[in-house]
User: What shape does this take?
Amino acid sequence: QVQLTESGGGLVQPGGSLRLSCTASGRPVSSSNMGWFRQAPGKEREFVAATQWNGGDTLYADSVKGRFTISRDVAKNTVYLQMNSLKAEDTAVYYCTAYGIWGQGTQVTVSS
Assistant: This one.
């Protein structure tokens, strides 16, 4: 059974950084495109970033381009989302997705 487990969320001040992790169990990260989405209170879930299954192309939402970086460590079967220059509007639950499934989400709160 494939599972995705996110971690790394928390409370950070505006301008700060966080790194989210998504560890896959049951299948290698090299076998699937992987992505990050987020959902703020009262809003729809929205795309944040994605990386191609072969480590090729990456894609970012305009709102995070230049601030967030998606990467993966095949040996650790983990995909990361490095988030820099965080803003209050980045506050949301962040979800990892791959293989047609979703992780449980990790809360990111940007506040002073």
